[in-house]
# Entry
Amino acid sequence: MRILGLDSSGLVAGVAIVEDDRLLAEYTTDYKKTHSQTLLPMLDEIRKMVELDLNSVDAIAIASGPGSYTGLRIGSATAKGLGFALNKPLVEVPTLEGLAWNLWGTEKLVCPIMDARRNQVYTGVYAFEAVGEGYELRTLLDGGARDIHTVIDWLNENGRDVIFLGDGVPVYGQTIRTELSVGYQFAPAGNNRQRAASVAALGSLYFAQGKTVSAAEHAPEYMRKSQAEREQEAKQAGGDTP
Amino acid sequence: MGGSILEPMEKDVLILAIESSCDETAAAVVKNGREVLSNVIYTQIALHTQFGGVVPEIASRKHIEKINQVIEQALTEAKLTLQDITAIAVTYGPGLVGALLVGVAEAKAISFASGIPLVGVHHISGHISANYIEHAELEPPFVCLVASGGHSHLVVVKDYGEYEIIGRTRDDAAGEAFDKVARAIGLGYPGGPKIDQLAKEGNPDAISFPRAKVAENEYDFSFSGLKSAVLNYLNSCQMKGETVKTADVAASFQKAVIDVLVEHSLHAVKQFGFSKFAIAGGVASNSSLRKAFEQECARQGIRFYHPSPIYCTDNAAMIGVAGYYEYLAGVRHGYDLNAVPNLKL
# Structure
């Protein structure tokens, strides 16, 4: 089974090819160029490097959100174009789950936090559960856009130690240090940002479980409405109040 | 290997075109640059109407939801598969960057996975090229007025894909002025067709609105003064307690816009010594504008071209036509093609 993984949900652009238990190739950059200029050239590079026949890929795993709206769409449109042209299904890997997979096997809780601006983070809480000879990811707190304090409160109440990762760490690290009452660690470079290899590996698992969508039906899960819709709703809600 | 004599001398060039620069998700297949085999448009207008204009983030979200269906339908209607396609053309600017990126990323991925060459196309070049679809005899050089919600350009089309902008708007685009005036008289969005419709019931000479000239360039446009004049007129009517005849406002405003567009355009045709003139863009489907150009061109002995309304609005067929000529000229884009929101013609 060959799964192509793509992640352009944040500042990182990543492409990877996983074949069963082998990572054939991975290319990750965290650089100022737009994903529009990096993602496909990177995929082209690894295709050439490992002489990949794209038609041999079984599915395209895509970090499906949350994340930067534009970044998500560049990844999604790329995955949709590949899926359409190759006639292959897509596997949607929620960005937070892909991030959590970077810390495969930890006994601690995993809390990815992505900076969502507007004083919010995209976050969830995950744990690894041994299943057979491997682990499966369990969701303890569903992914969503929320205030950092909400997740800190949840973790304090839960009481288990936790590892944080994601681009929200540099932004909210101090808040965590000040307010968290349980033991915590911050994941290091190489594990603390989106990795397409994790998206492809977790995607392989989901593919084996039959969790696929067609290229046509896939769209990112933003976890947030557009600003115009939020403002309209706020206005309508306000208008209803006498 | 030499070609068999049984093979046709020239193979058909089939362009799959993708357009997502604003609020239309569109795909088309165009044969040999002039024959439209399919032209699929998913319009989001209804979605944006409640917000009084295009909301970029909502437009981008809709593009990603619809783009594959639109492409698949374009191939199905053309009775072709991706394998039959010679090149993929995609709008990469100007437009809303988030919206453009959906089409660009999709087109690049299809090109990458299929090995079909990629040709990036300028949106305005597409609008101008829409004129080639229904006018087999039309060839450059000619003058073209491109007027839409985002653009008001007077362009000398020197050759296929070779343009010189000789006039542009200094402030509002023509279509933008239509939208703003439509909002002021309570017609809503999109303003162009609504004003066009209402103006039919009004007197275009009822109110005298200004025709702005731009001092430094005889071909440039300015519509913000006209827009302000309309708003001032509405205000003063309100102050005096007079009832506004909106049909007269629509007709008089529209005439003021058209007068300027016609005068500048045809002046350019004469100055550059051409005998052909074309219009393009959303505003080009305005019925009064067409009529004014028809009459004035006939009077001055200029051949007048305009696309059908379906090719005036944003569509992918026009991108396929422009892409065909770019393809013939050897233009190819790489996998690093980016969306360029303010792309120059």
Notes: Residues 165 and 187 of chain A are 5 Å apart (CA to CA). Chain A has two domains: 2-95+193-228, 104-186. Chain A touches chain B at residues 34, 36-41, 43-44, 54, 69-70, 73-74, 76-86, 215-216, 219-220, 222, 226-229, 232 (CB under 8 Å). The longest helix of chain A spans residues 69-86.
